Amino acid sequence: MRLNRLHSLTWNALKLNEVVLEDKITLNGSGKAMVEKIPAGVIIGNESCSDCGGCDLKDTTALKSIKCGMGEEADAFFAKASKDVLMVHARPGRKVSEPVNIRYLMENGDSNADRVEILAEEGSSITVIMDYSSSKREAAGFFGVQTRVKVGAHASVHLVKVNLLGSGFMCLDDIGVAVESEGYFDITQMCLGGKRNIIGVAADLTGYKAGFNGDMGYLCMGSQDLDMNYHISHHGRKSGSELNVKGALRDNARKNFRGTIDLIHGAKGAVGDELEDVLLLSEGVINKTLPVILCDEDDVEGTHGASIGRLSSDMLFYMQTRGFSKHEAELIMTKAKLNSVRNLIGDEQTHGRIQYYLEEAFK
Fold first, then answer.
1. Residue 189: C-alpha distances to residues 77, 146, 181, 245, 328 (Å)
2. pLDDT by residue (tens digit) across 240-277?
């Protein structure tokens, strides 16, 4: 499969126009989702329901037309691999304070692909936490999930994605979002586990003053490979987006980041901003960053930047004079970056799992 292909191809010396997945994926259907919390005001269903209790979950044409970040070949893969769709529905005007928790426990040898659709109707608000984890650090297998989100007018969705999979897992995380007038979509991601992770996010800000905010934290160690592609399309007038990506690379890890802000004709007054902050902890890491701004409209604003580097000798000396070793200093700085993202999640159980994972990773 060819995944995470840039909408506007660029000079390809860094091999960032797309990622090619040559591995053969064999699914055994193990590792199904567990919905741990269903708060009041939320309906959970699927396409095979014979009785949805009068809800509109079966009317998902608008959701299925949403484009996801990995592209058409990923669409074909998920449509074939996952026969059903888990659907999360927030009714009009319902402000849901408690999160919906969807957990995937993937053990050694598990191989599964799933699809999730989230619909927040006009004036509603909802938080969905999706946690992928393994009980054993060395577990290996495959996990893929495609998530489509529709945010209605004046509605808001906070989507949380946490990857704590075993060190031998391949993970495909494909996300597509459409935001209507004065709607707001917020995504918080933590990618710590797995061996090879591919993440694609496409957000279409279709309405007036539609908003997008993304916060991504990652830690790549050993031979981990992370490939990310974010494409934020501004169609609506005065739409706004902000993307912040923070992470650290150690040992022989590899990471690709593509971030595109697309200011489309008609999006007058739109503002888009993206920033990546990368800490390099070893000489053998490979880091590639490609921020892109596409503009077909005047009276818009787009900014991007990247901060990439190692712990400075001054910072290291400062911490060593206070009794910290180089290893401890790296741990403190890495946790500071990741905790700034983790603290946005707002769920104590998820916080605890992330904290435990980080402590084990640096032993």
1. 23, 15, 24, 9, 25
2. 999 999 999 999 999 999 999 999 999 999 999 999 99
